[in-house]
Structure formats: structure tokens, C-alpha cells
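Thread: iron/sulfur cluster complex, take 2
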Amino acid sequence: MKSPKVGFVSLGCPKALVDSERILTQLRTEGYEVAASFEGADLVVVNTCGFIESAVQESLDAIGEAINENGKVIVTGCLGKDEAKIRSMHPSVLKVTGAAAYQDVMSAVHEYVPPPPAHNPFVDLVPPQGIRLTPKHYAYLKISEGCNHRCTFCIIPQLRGDLVSRPIGSVMDEAQALVNAGVKEILVISQDTSAYGIDTKYKLDFWNGQPLKTKFYDLCAALGQLGVWVRLHYVYPYPHVDAVLELMRDGKILPYLDIPFQHASPRILKLMKRPAHSENTLEKIKLWRSICPDLAIRSTFVVGFPGETEEDFQYLLDWLREAKLDRVGCFTYSPIEGAPANDLPDLVPDEIKQDRYERFMLVAQEISTQILKDKIGKRMTVLVDELDPEYPVAVARSYADAPEIDGNVFVEDIDKSQIQPGQMLYVEITDADEYDLFAKLISV
Ligand code: SF4
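Output below.
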């Protein structure tokens, strides 16, 4: 009997990507095949994103395309919260479920396309690390769902609920399986990585016979034993983060922190209801750098939040000049349906938002250019993502660069027959521009 085939569309952030990977793993475990096109599929699952208006539109378009080309569509993911909106545009969708609703998605798939009866999940080939949508050498590791904060511009807690941390034993088992499968870099993700375990009251668990607490520090220390790059995303500057800097200094995990500061003006941070908004972040960054001088910090910011004055914005620019963050992204504020910030007064006109965005990016570029220029002549290890199809160049990343969001290190004049994606190279930096580095190979 032929295996039923399910088509899959995965949209949104790395957290949604991990949800897709879990659903795909379960589908394969139960004997479904993943179809390469809509036409060959018995049904299509669309994992949507509902974060900002453009993502909502992209999700609705993807659902429409799947309906036109296949007809049988199950919708899941963040936009699933707004079933009425989906059904008003696409009344024929078979089922709508919310984010991280793996069981609901599987039940719906079973309802419309039953799994092959004789399937034995212990015989069929699902790799122990599950199905991954990332390249073979790096993988996202999601440690929790939901969030206990209530930032006024965000609807994630409405979509995904309060924080639910996975037991540390299960997170570590997954991390170990990834390493066994050849993953060289683990990217830890969640909505608030530094809050890991708070909801479980740091419950004690076991991994490989070791007692471990379901706690941020313990997780970082345990991941640091695996011998691969470990990169932390979505960390907030809480006091308990300081101890993790020592693990970075000692080379256990990468000296890299992705901290979504969003703003610097205390008044705006308060209006945003940001976690740890009363921390003195400049002092904190200074302290972290004194513990771990190589620390690379990446962050994102929002300009033009309701109520942001020119003074608040100047405060942000001054803060940025002093903080000298390695990597920054910036967005102009746009309202998200259902977010409490929509009720705030003093909206910033679009042209001012745009002007602030451009001024912010100029400062950010100056800082990045200087930081990267200072790396010329230094030697470091980089991880190869891919080989340039035309030139003798390996496209790689250093500890300071997360995939997709940060820069690259282009290793030039290499012998492509000797180098593969996923390989670590030791290089010397020879040149830099605003975002990327260029290097020569020292050793493989
Ligand atoms: S920390 Fe704030 S922005 Fe992040 S998911 Fe939680 S509520 Fe949303």
C-alpha cells in the first residue's frame, strides 16, 4: 500500500520552524510521506505566522495557494488563534488549530487522511534527531513554549499562553541526539530563554544519570558539555544571567547573547512593559564584558513606538553609541491587531518613524563597521555554511554570527574539493565591510 502524502508549508520565526519540525517528525513516525509539491499531496498543512500584519498577509496567501492547488488544507500556528479571519477568507479550510498544537494537527490529519495501518514506527526510518528543516550542521533547540510577560506591543502570550518549560532531561536528550546526528551548532530558542524553568520552580530532573535543575544556568552548563557551539537567543538582562558569562569566558558556550532590548529610554521601556526594564543595561553590559571580553551582543530595536519623543530617540542613539552592540536590527513600530499598545496615545507619524529608522541604522552601521574593522588581523574558528557556487569561497560564520540574522565570514581562495558545509576552519581576518568579514584559510 502506498503511504499517504502530506504537503507542508512552514512560515514564521525559528520557534514556528521547530513546531513544523515536530509535526513533520510525527508524520514520518506514523508512516506519512512528506510531499514535494501540493499536487502530489493528499492534504496540506500550513504552519502560519500571525505576528505582524505582513506575516498575517503572507500566511493568508499561503493558505489560499494551498487551497487552489490542493484543496485539502489544515491550518496551524500563530494565526490559528484568529480562526474567524482565516475562515472569512478561506471558508473551505478543513481545520484550524493554534500554535504548538501538535496533537490537534495530528488528530486532524488522521481524520482526513488516515495513516497506513501496518505502519511500525520502530522499524521505519525516522532519524533519532527527528526531521529538521535547517541544514545538517545547525539546529534550533526550543526549550519552552509561551511567555509570562505582557509587553504591550506583543500578542504572543495571547497566542501561545504562559511560559511552559520543557523538562531539562528531555531538552538534553534532544540536544544529544542532534550532536550524535552531526549537528555542530545548537541555537537555543524560546520567547524568554533566561526565564527557563521558573514555571516549574526549577524542578529537578535527570540526564545521563546526572541530577539537573530545570534552570537557565544548569541548562547552559549541561549543553556546554556536548562539545559543539551553543548559541543563546532571546535572553533578558536579569541578574541571574551574569553567571552564564563565566561559562562563555571559559569556552563552554559561545560568547554570544541575543537580547531583544527593543529600546533604551526608561520611559518607553515602561510603556512597552518590557521584562527587566528597570535594569541599568549599560552597567550590565559593562559587567558582562569585564567577565567575558569577547562577548558579542546582538539585539533588535523598535523606533516610533507610541509616545516616543525626539528626546527618547536621542536617548536611544546615545545608549547605542555607548553600548556598541555588535549586531543590531531595527523596525519601525507597526500596530499588531489585539495588542494593548494600540490604545496608547501620541502615535508617531510615519515619516518621523522612517527618519528615526534611518538615523538609527546609520549609527548602528558606524558601530558595526568599526567593530568589524578591529577584527582585521585576528585569527578565529569559523563554521562553514555553504560553498560559493562560482568562486573559490566558503561562506562561513564566526561565534559572533547567528545564521540568517547576522553577518558572514567569507573565506577566500580555498580549494573547494577539501571543504564542506558543516566544517570548522581556522582563519585569519583580512578585510571587513559594514556587516561581513573576509578571511584567508590558516588550517582546516
Ligand atoms: S517577552 Fe514580551 S515580546 Fe517577548 S514574547 Fe513575551 S510578551 Fe512578547
